[in-house]
Amino acid sequence: xxxxxxxxxxxxxxxxxxxxxxxxxxxxxxxxxxxxxxxxxxxxxxxxxxxxxxxxxxxxxxxxxxxxxxxxxxxxxxxxxxxxxxxxxxxxxxxxxxxxxxxxxxxxxxxxxxxxxxxxxxxxxxxxxxxxxxxxxxxxxxxxxxxxxxxxxxxxxxxxxxxxxxxxxxxxxxxxxxxxxxxxxxxxxxxxxxxxxxxxxxxxxxxxxxxxxxxxxxxxxxxxxxxxxxxxxxxxxxxxxxxxxxxxxxxxxxxxxxxxxxxxxxxxxxxxxxxxxxxxxxxxxxxxxxxxxxxxxxxxxxxxxxxxxxxxxxxxxxxxxxxxxxxxxxxxxxxxxxxxxxxxxxxxxxxxxxxxxxxxxxxxxxxxxxxxxxxxxxxxx
Amino acid sequence: xxxxxxxxxxxxxxxxxxxxxxxxxxxxxxxxxxxxxxxxxxxxxxxxxxxxxxxxxxxxxxxxxxxxxxxxxxxxxxxxxxxxxxxxxxxxxxxxxxxxxxxxxxxxxxxxxxxxxxxxxxxxxxxxxxxxxxxxxxxxxxxxxxxxxxxxxxxxxxxxxxxxxxxxxxxxxxxxxxxxxxxxxxxxxxxxxxxxxxxxxxxxxxxxxxxxxxxxxxxxxxxxxxxxxxxxxxxxxxxxxxxxxxxxxxxxxx
Lengths: 381, 254
Hints:
Chain A has 13 helices and 18 strands. By secondary structure, chain A is an alpha/beta fold. Chain A has two domains: 2-198, 3-Layer(aba) Sandwich (Rossmann fold); 272-379, Rossmann fold (3-Layer(aba) Sandwich). Chain A is globular. Chain A starts with a strand and ends with a helix. Chain B is of the alpha/beta class and 254 residues long.
């Protein structure tokens, strides 16, 4: 249920690293359990949580690996806490089974993935955006998750709060898909006096795993409340009873797990538009790539070139309608990404008749405005 | 099951899925008797289990909060439950494959951390649910679906392992030792810190039938003939203990 609370940090301007702002955002949202395993470039989040959580009456656990981290956090969520973990590529890969379990059991939890250059160990201290598709499709089986992409220290704070709110509201694992640049960036950001948070509905119910509506979110009582919860990652009916061979139960459950996200895209999908009206050259980007794209678009506008930027804050679920609207007049659509082309596949699928140009960069460094301009010049008469 | 224990059970889920001759039903009863005798508030208990036959002892049968988790991870889940709400009594019930193979890392670290959990291993020395493959507690030289010529590997003594990691209370009994097992479970539930009980349970269906032990009686004799009490260990040479099942409470070595 939505409620307005006072910010935990005194309201003012702060100069902070993105990872620290993320941890503070989590605390402000009400996170009181953190379990993690050290991994560059996300470790500052856990270090900060280890100091701050005991100060606010929360629990910090350094677990034996990332699998234990996500599993213990799911357990803590069922014990009633708002929970988070943070990791990077290799750890994120290990967490995928747990993410699938959280989807199936509708367990609110926030996973921060500070993306680094992969595959495998790759370049531990270098940025990338290579986990976009893994975040969406990594856990096995048909499912939906929510993924948000911050482009500033301000958003490392704000979107962490939003991630908790979505996670609690829709009972779905929510991923903050950051990258090494925003995570280690130090810049100023503002803490407002009050923030809006969402606390999960803990109403006692006999059916914590089903609703009458095909896209509903049932209330989630927690352990010790007397709900006699039957939590299971196996296919289950609305009471939680395993039905591992019933086609109707499987269909109803999986359909609802997907539709509770798909049918609430209007609430979940966050985008920002810069000069997109009648843009001839449309840049579509997210995270730190969007920040470089913004510099490009501003520069082009100064040269009277009709360029615009559509920035995706919510990457998953993907907002198709806004893309179609912004692309109406576009002659060329550029998609700069710090990967070999991941979200661009989605854009090509949605705009099959338009010229969509990927601008990939996988050098373990940020995509610079000059990288984007270079490609743009080839398409601008 | 004795009727006075029905209040702890979702009797509508009966009959249990356990095969004829399986020891897990006895273990279920023994756990509930220990809880009943201690007069614990069942509403404030959470039973966490992984994947496998043993994991089905609490889920869906126990009429309180149950968390049926991923394969191998119940101890990690339970750690989160206990740490987030220390007022809850958190018990893990799962099999040997779940706790000691895929979940071995979580088991030793929870013991090292001394998390306030009671972990009960329903140890049938086999992967029963998946069709009878080798587990880390399968006795050496015996046959499974993945060791048709006999198991060439040594089995884990889980009590020794967990004890070495710092567990506060460790014991092993078989499901045939109901009285001492109830006592051990009560001690474990009253232990302040990490407690572990390895419960040897017969599996005639998947283990016995490939080792000329097709009935419960055969399995009973096979288990009984290998028993050695912890207090009598000094009477045996090390090599004599190779195939034995050590029962009793594992105390600190002198």
